[in-house]
Specification:
globular, 70% helix, transmembrane, ABC transporter involved in vitamin B12 uptake, BtuC, single chain, transport
Amino acid sequence: MEILGIPLQAMMSQLLLGLVNGSFYAMLSLGLAVIFGLLNVINFAHGAMYMMGAFLAWMGLEYLGLNYWMMLLLAPLVVGVIGIVIERSMLRWLYRLDHLYGLLLTFGVTLMLEGVFRSVYGVSGQPYAVPEALSGATNLGFMILPNYRAWVVVASLLVCFLTWFVIEKTRLGAYLRAGTENPKLVEAFGINVPLMVTLTYGFGVALAAFAGVLAAPVIQVSPLMGSNLIITVFAVVVIGGMGSILGSILTGLGLGVIEGLTRVFYPELSATVVFIVMAIVLMLRPAGLFGKE
Protein backbone atom coordinates (compact mmCIF):
# COMPACT_ATOMS: atom_id res chain seq x y z
CA MET A 1 0.00 0.00 0.00
CA GLU A 2 1.26 3.48 -0.87
CA ILE A 3 0.35 7.02 0.17
CA LEU A 4 1.31 9.74 -2.34
CA GLY A 5 3.73 7.29 -3.91
CA ILE A 6 5.41 6.46 -0.56
CA PRO A 7 5.16 2.89 0.80
CA LEU A 8 3.04 2.81 3.95
CA GLN A 9 5.68 0.90 5.93
CA ALA A 10 8.38 3.48 5.08
CA MET A 11 6.08 6.33 6.06
CA MET A 12 5.11 4.72 9.38
CA SER A 13 8.76 3.99 10.16
CA GLN A 14 9.66 7.65 9.68
CA LEU A 15 6.65 8.72 11.74
CA LEU A 16 7.79 6.43 14.57
CA LEU A 17 11.32 7.85 14.32
CA GLY A 18 9.86 11.35 14.42
CA LEU A 19 7.76 10.46 17.45
CA VAL A 20 10.82 9.06 19.26
CA ASN A 21 12.79 12.24 18.48
CA GLY A 22 9.76 14.26 19.54
CA SER A 23 9.72 12.41 22.86
CA PHE A 24 13.31 13.52 23.51
CA TYR A 25 12.45 17.07 22.40
CA ALA A 26 9.45 17.07 24.75
CA MET A 27 11.38 15.82 27.79
CA LEU A 28 14.32 18.19 27.29
CA SER A 29 12.15 21.21 26.52
CA LEU A 30 9.98 20.34 29.53
CA GLY A 31 13.02 20.55 31.82
CA LEU A 32 14.01 23.86 30.22
CA ALA A 33 10.47 25.20 30.58
CA VAL A 34 10.29 24.17 34.25
CA ILE A 35 13.60 25.92 35.02
CA PHE A 36 12.79 29.06 33.03
CA GLY A 37 9.13 29.26 34.07
CA LEU A 38 9.81 28.82 37.79
CA LEU A 39 13.39 30.13 38.18
CA ASN A 40 13.61 32.58 35.24
CA VAL A 41 16.97 31.08 34.16
CA ILE A 42 17.88 30.14 30.57
CA ASN A 43 19.70 26.89 31.31
CA PHE A 44 22.12 26.30 28.43
CA ALA A 45 23.71 23.46 30.45
CA HIS A 46 20.63 21.32 29.84
CA GLY A 47 22.26 19.51 26.91
CA ALA A 48 25.30 18.69 29.05
CA MET A 49 23.02 17.21 31.74
CA TYR A 50 21.34 15.08 29.06
CA MET A 51 24.79 13.89 27.97
CA MET A 52 25.79 13.15 31.57
CA GLY A 53 22.69 11.03 32.10
CA ALA A 54 23.59 8.88 29.09
CA PHE A 55 27.24 8.63 30.16
CA LEU A 56 26.33 7.68 33.73
CA ALA A 57 24.15 4.85 32.37
CA TRP A 58 27.07 3.64 30.23
CA MET A 59 29.59 4.00 33.09
CA GLY A 60 27.28 2.19 35.50
CA LEU A 61 27.07 -0.79 33.16
CA GLU A 62 30.75 -0.70 32.09
CA TYR A 63 32.41 -0.19 35.49
CA LEU A 64 29.87 -1.28 38.10
CA GLY A 65 27.71 -3.81 36.29
CA LEU A 66 24.54 -1.83 37.02
CA ASN A 67 21.83 -2.60 34.48
CA TYR A 68 19.66 -0.21 32.49
CA TRP A 69 16.75 -0.22 34.94
CA MET A 70 18.91 0.69 37.93
CA MET A 71 20.60 3.51 36.02
CA LEU A 72 17.24 4.79 34.82
CA LEU A 73 16.65 5.65 38.49
CA LEU A 74 20.19 6.42 39.67
CA ALA A 75 21.45 8.62 36.81
CA PRO A 76 18.70 11.28 37.18
CA LEU A 77 19.30 11.34 40.96
CA VAL A 78 23.05 11.84 40.54
CA VAL A 79 22.62 14.54 37.88
CA GLY A 80 19.92 16.17 40.02
CA VAL A 81 22.40 16.41 42.92
CA ILE A 82 25.02 17.90 40.57
CA GLY A 83 22.40 20.42 39.45
CA ILE A 84 21.65 21.32 43.06
CA VAL A 85 25.36 21.96 43.68
CA ILE A 86 25.53 24.19 40.58
CA GLU A 87 22.42 26.11 41.65
CA ARG A 88 23.59 26.62 45.23
CA SER A 89 27.17 27.56 44.35
CA MET A 90 26.66 29.65 41.19
CA LEU A 91 23.17 30.29 39.86
CA ARG A 92 21.64 31.58 43.09
CA TRP A 93 23.66 34.80 42.76
CA LEU A 94 22.25 35.58 39.30
CA TYR A 95 18.47 35.43 39.79
CA ARG A 96 18.04 39.20 40.04
CA LEU A 97 20.34 39.96 37.13
CA ASP A 98 19.68 39.97 33.39
CA HIS A 99 18.96 36.59 31.70
CA LEU A 100 22.23 36.94 29.78
CA TYR A 101 24.31 36.27 32.90
CA GLY A 102 22.61 32.95 33.60
CA LEU A 103 22.91 31.99 29.93
CA LEU A 104 26.65 32.75 29.87
CA LEU A 105 27.27 30.91 33.14
CA THR A 106 25.43 27.76 32.07
CA PHE A 107 27.15 27.91 28.67
CA GLY A 108 30.49 27.94 30.48
CA VAL A 109 29.41 24.96 32.61
CA THR A 110 28.49 23.14 29.39
CA LEU A 111 31.93 23.75 27.87
CA MET A 112 33.66 22.49 31.02
CA LEU A 113 31.58 19.32 31.30
CA GLU A 114 31.89 18.50 27.60
CA GLY A 115 35.64 19.15 27.76
CA VAL A 116 36.10 16.74 30.68
CA PHE A 117 34.20 13.89 28.99
CA ARG A 118 35.84 14.60 25.63
CA SER A 119 39.33 14.43 27.12
CA VAL A 120 38.60 11.09 28.82
CA TYR A 121 36.41 9.31 26.24
CA GLY A 122 37.03 11.14 22.96
CA VAL A 123 34.26 12.04 20.53
CA SER A 124 33.73 8.76 18.68
CA GLY A 125 30.90 7.60 20.97
CA GLN A 126 30.28 4.51 23.10
CA PRO A 127 27.65 1.86 22.28
CA TYR A 128 25.00 0.97 24.86
CA ALA A 129 22.99 -2.21 24.34
CA VAL A 130 19.19 -2.28 24.44
CA PRO A 131 18.03 -4.00 27.68
CA GLU A 132 17.10 -7.62 27.07
CA ALA A 133 13.50 -7.16 28.24
CA LEU A 134 12.93 -4.56 25.50
CA SER A 135 14.90 -6.15 22.67
CA GLY A 136 13.26 -7.33 19.48
CA ALA A 137 10.27 -5.92 17.63
CA THR A 138 6.52 -6.42 17.24
CA ASN A 139 4.87 -6.96 13.88
CA LEU A 140 1.82 -4.68 13.66
CA GLY A 141 0.95 -5.77 10.14
CA PHE A 142 1.56 -2.41 8.50
CA MET A 143 5.01 -1.96 10.11
CA ILE A 144 7.60 -3.55 12.39
CA LEU A 145 7.62 -1.72 15.74
CA PRO A 146 10.92 -1.94 17.71
CA ASN A 147 9.98 -2.62 21.32
CA TYR A 148 12.55 -0.24 22.77
CA ARG A 149 11.39 2.73 20.67
CA ALA A 150 7.82 2.09 21.78
CA TRP A 151 9.04 2.10 25.41
CA VAL A 152 10.82 5.44 24.86
CA VAL A 153 7.61 7.06 23.64
CA VAL A 154 5.46 5.63 26.46
CA ALA A 155 7.96 6.45 29.23
CA SER A 156 8.48 10.00 27.92
CA LEU A 157 4.75 10.70 27.71
CA LEU A 158 4.16 9.37 31.24
CA VAL A 159 6.94 11.48 32.77
CA CYS A 160 5.98 14.61 30.80
CA PHE A 161 2.29 14.59 31.64
CA LEU A 162 2.90 13.57 35.26
CA THR A 163 5.22 16.58 35.59
CA TRP A 164 2.60 18.83 33.99
CA PHE A 165 -0.06 17.52 36.37
CA VAL A 166 2.09 18.11 39.47
CA ILE A 167 3.02 21.67 38.48
CA GLU A 168 -0.36 22.79 37.16
CA LYS A 169 -2.90 20.83 39.20
CA THR A 170 -1.49 20.24 42.70
CA ARG A 171 -0.84 22.35 45.79
CA LEU A 172 2.91 21.81 45.42
CA GLY A 173 2.78 23.28 41.92
CA ALA A 174 0.80 26.25 43.24
CA TYR A 175 3.49 26.87 45.87
CA LEU A 176 6.17 26.70 43.17
CA ARG A 177 4.41 29.23 40.95
CA ALA A 178 3.61 31.53 43.84
CA GLY A 179 7.18 31.31 45.13
CA THR A 180 8.53 32.70 41.86
CA GLU A 181 5.99 35.51 41.62
CA ASN A 182 5.95 36.66 45.25
CA PRO A 183 8.59 34.82 47.35
CA LYS A 184 8.21 37.08 50.41
CA LEU A 185 4.51 36.32 50.68
CA VAL A 186 5.08 32.57 50.34
CA GLU A 187 7.86 32.66 52.96
CA ALA A 188 5.38 34.33 55.32
CA PHE A 189 3.41 31.06 55.27
CA GLY A 190 6.45 29.17 56.52
CA ILE A 191 7.61 27.75 53.17
CA ASN A 192 11.35 27.61 52.49
CA VAL A 193 11.41 29.26 49.04
CA PRO A 194 15.21 29.03 48.43
CA LEU A 195 15.10 25.28 49.10
CA MET A 196 12.08 24.94 46.82
CA VAL A 197 13.93 26.79 44.04
CA THR A 198 17.00 24.60 44.48
CA LEU A 199 14.99 21.38 44.31
CA THR A 200 13.15 22.68 41.25
CA TYR A 201 16.44 23.20 39.41
CA GLY A 202 17.60 19.75 40.48
CA PHE A 203 14.37 18.24 39.20
CA GLY A 204 14.66 20.08 35.87
CA VAL A 205 18.14 18.75 35.14
CA ALA A 206 17.12 15.28 36.40
CA LEU A 207 14.52 15.25 33.60
CA ALA A 208 17.33 15.89 31.11
CA ALA A 209 19.36 13.02 32.60
CA PHE A 210 16.33 10.71 32.39
CA ALA A 211 16.04 11.55 28.69
CA GLY A 212 19.76 10.84 28.32
CA VAL A 213 19.40 7.33 29.77
CA LEU A 214 16.45 6.68 27.45
CA ALA A 215 18.55 7.88 24.49
CA ALA A 216 21.65 5.82 25.30
CA PRO A 217 20.50 2.61 23.54
CA VAL A 218 19.12 4.59 20.57
CA ILE A 219 22.19 6.67 19.72
CA GLN A 220 25.85 6.28 20.64
CA VAL A 221 26.83 7.88 23.95
CA SER A 222 29.06 10.83 23.07
CA PRO A 223 30.25 14.04 24.79
CA LEU A 224 28.72 16.01 21.91
CA MET A 225 25.27 14.41 21.97
CA GLY A 226 23.84 17.22 24.08
CA SER A 227 25.27 20.11 22.07
CA ASN A 228 23.95 18.51 18.87
CA LEU A 229 20.41 18.57 20.27
CA ILE A 230 20.16 21.60 22.54
CA ILE A 231 19.71 24.23 19.78
CA THR A 232 16.71 22.32 18.40
CA VAL A 233 15.30 21.98 21.91
CA PHE A 234 15.61 25.73 22.50
CA ALA A 235 13.69 26.24 19.24
CA VAL A 236 10.97 23.91 20.57
CA VAL A 237 10.73 25.93 23.79
CA VAL A 238 10.46 29.20 21.86
CA ILE A 239 7.74 27.81 19.58
CA GLY A 240 5.75 26.40 22.50
CA GLY A 241 6.18 29.57 24.59
CA MET A 242 8.95 30.28 27.09
CA GLY A 243 7.97 28.81 30.43
CA SER A 244 4.88 26.97 29.14
CA ILE A 245 4.93 23.39 30.46
CA LEU A 246 2.14 22.00 28.29
CA GLY A 247 3.39 24.01 25.30
CA SER A 248 6.81 22.38 25.52
CA ILE A 249 5.37 18.87 25.66
CA LEU A 250 2.91 19.24 22.79
CA THR A 251 5.29 21.25 20.62
CA GLY A 252 8.14 18.79 21.13
CA LEU A 253 5.99 15.84 20.09
CA GLY A 254 4.41 17.73 17.20
CA LEU A 255 7.71 18.96 15.78
CA GLY A 256 9.19 15.47 16.01
CA VAL A 257 6.32 14.16 13.87
CA ILE A 258 6.68 17.07 11.40
CA GLU A 259 10.39 16.34 11.16
CA GLY A 260 9.66 12.67 10.45
CA LEU A 261 7.15 13.50 7.71
CA THR A 262 9.61 15.95 6.17
CA ARG A 263 12.18 13.15 5.88
CA VAL A 264 9.64 11.22 3.81
CA PHE A 265 8.51 13.92 1.41
CA TYR A 266 11.46 16.35 1.28
CA PRO A 267 14.53 14.97 3.13
CA GLU A 268 16.72 17.99 2.31
CA LEU A 269 14.51 20.15 4.54
CA SER A 270 14.38 17.84 7.57
CA ALA A 271 17.37 19.42 9.34
CA THR A 272 15.91 22.95 9.15
CA VAL A 273 12.14 22.46 9.27
CA VAL A 274 12.05 23.13 13.04
CA PHE A 275 13.70 26.51 12.57
CA ILE A 276 11.40 27.39 9.66
CA VAL A 277 8.42 26.65 11.89
CA MET A 278 10.00 28.78 14.63
CA ALA A 279 10.42 31.75 12.27
CA ILE A 280 6.80 31.51 11.12
CA VAL A 281 5.46 31.22 14.68
CA LEU A 282 7.54 34.18 15.92
CA MET A 283 6.26 36.35 13.07
CA LEU A 284 2.63 35.47 13.81
CA ARG A 285 2.79 35.03 17.59
CA PRO A 286 6.00 36.31 19.23
CA ALA A 287 5.13 34.81 22.63
CA GLY A 288 4.89 31.30 21.17
CA LEU A 289 1.91 29.05 20.58
CA PHE A 290 1.10 28.56 24.28
CA GLY A 291 2.96 31.52 25.77
CA LYS A 292 1.47 34.61 27.34
CA GLU A 293 1.95 37.99 25.72
